[in-house]
Known about the structure:
Blueprint: H1 6-23, H2 25-43, H3 46-55, H4 60-65, H5 67-73, H6 84-102, H7 104-131, H8 148-157, H9 166-183, H10 188-202, H11 219-228, H12 231-236, H13 249-252, H14 254-260
Helix pairs in contact: 2-6, 6-7, 6-8, 7-8, 7-10, 8-10, 9-10
Amino acid sequence: MNLEGLPDRLWSLWSSARAWVRSSPGTHIYLLIIGITSLVIASASEGLETFLLHRTSSNIHELDKHPLQSLLISGFWMADPSSFLFYAVLFEVFHANVERWTGTLRWLCAVAVAHVAATLVSQQILLLAIESHSAPRSMKHVVDIGVSYGLAGAVGILTYRMPRPWRWLYLTGAVLFFAVPLTTGGTFTDAGHAIALALGLALWPLTRGRPTWRWDLGPAARRRFRAAGDAEALGATDALGPSDVPVTADALGPEAALTRTGAREPRRFRRPRAKR
């Protein structure tokens, strides 16, 4: 096994991971809080676990007693701590990319709107089902916690970062993923997921002015870079795309350099004509 250069590779990997975390701080703070609450649930006794899950739920009973508190706290707990690693991967795929793309404030706004609105609407649907005797009255105390509503909102808003035509394929997959459970005997939670996805799609103004991913750096684009003679730009824009490459004056010639700097081309000297 060749260990030569291993420290450099490890340091490079660590630097990349640190840069990724620093580029999406809100996502990783959120993930850290969920990790702590998951450890609390996993280490709690059965009685304490039951109390915590019901006390932090945003069900009808808690919304009636502590509306703001239950809406805020319910998004930081998970009923099944063993699913933490699975959600950590989803956070890196969806939340982190949305935050890096739109900024922490816009990301936080989108997640909060999706979580709060989906919770309120889904609980209202459940309340109507209880009043129409389609659901038992005990459902007012059902455990309703988790991070999935905010995650569904992030899935929706990330649609606008996909370049066409891949955007439509991504959107179709997302809609099918959340619509199939809803149309095949879904619960109020499935309704909440669909609502959160729709809200994420409706928040497209938050993505205004943000570039989409560039997946078009093919052989033709690489030939254009070689023709320009700018090898450094080619290495720096593998993840950006050809339209983001600054065109240098050296690649265009001296005439372009004079034009870009605002200088005029000097006039040729003309011999004065003799008066007649």
